Amino acid sequence: MSGAPFRLASLDAGHDRTAFNSDSEPLNRYLREQATQDVRRRVAACFVALADGSRIAGYYTLASASLLLADLPASTVKKLPRYPTVPAVRMGRLAVDQAFKSQGLGGALLADALDRAARSEIAAFALMVDAKDEAAAAFYRHHGFIALPDSPLTLFLPLATVLRS
Ligand SMILES: CC(C)(COP(=O)(O)OP(=O)(O)OC[C@H]1O[C@@H](n2cnc3c(N)ncnc32)[C@H](O)[C@@H]1OP(=O)(O)O)[C@@H](O)C(=O)NCCC(=O)NCCS
Questions:
Q1: CATH for 7-164, among 3.10.450.350, 3.40.630.30, 3.40.50.300, 2.70.150.10?
Q2: Atom 13 of ligand 1, residue of closest alpha carbon
Q3: Is 59 a catalytic residue?
Q4: Mind giving me the DSSP string for 33-77?
């Protein structure tokens, strides 16, 4: 990653959430108003990249999820057991502050999420994401994610791929 060094941490009350300003207002509002509550209720884990001490430069969330086998591409299904669903980890949100865009931070946060999901003791077949629009889906495809055949804004990356790389 070029530019300023970032420190990755779990979101906590000491981090400054108010100044965060990505291109997506819903993602800014989520960090400001909802993230700490979701963490407290254990419906999401939230990880932040910190610049200059407590300033949040980017964040993402992870939570448990599942993928229906019937929704996956045939080439993936053929390598899986015939269960109705497979376990997954969902990266529900990912955003980088405008001041830190295009410096590799989005890619670094994605790599951190993949690494955390792949190294968990609780098995998950894939990291999945719900891209908010086509530009976000292009970002994930750029990083090797595969779109579900019938829902192109839902993408996944098998975690065995991450462990092999
Ligand atoms: C999408 C987002 C997270 C990217 O963050 P970023 O820090 O600017 O991205 P990076 O600098 O890490 O880019 C990493 C790589 O992805 C590529 N990339 C970035 N945006 C892309 C896009 N929309 N489509 C295709 N590739 C893209 C970059 O060219 C770069 O490629 P390289 O590693 O081969 O040089 C950021 O723009 C953002 O917060 N957008 C608003 C919220 C959003 O769309 N979130 C997506 C999840 S819904």
A1: 3.40.630.30
A2: 104
A3: no
A4: IIHHHHHHTTS-EEEEEEETTTEEEEEEEEEEEEEEGGGS-HHHH
- Residue closest by Cα to atom 19 of ligand 1: 139
pLDDT confidence of residue 133: 94
- Ligand 1 centre and the CA of 102: distance in Å? 7
Q: How far apart are CA 23 and CA 95, in angstroms?
A: 8
Q: Residue 3 has what pLDDT?
A: 54
Q: How many CB atoms lie within 10 A of CB 142?
A: 10
Pocket of ligand 1 (CB under 6 A): 22-24, 27, 94-96, 101-107, 131-132, 135-136, 138-139, 142
Q: Where are the domains of the chain?
A: 7-164
Residues 6+ apart with CB under 8 A from 165: none
Q: What is the chain's pLDDT, residue by residue, as a tens digit (165 residues)?
A: 445 689 999 999 889 999 999 999 999 999 999 999 999 999 999 999 999 888 999 999 999 999 999 999 999 999 999 999 999 999 999 999 999 999 999 999 999 999 999 999 999 999 999 999 999 999 999 999 999 999 999 999 999 988 777
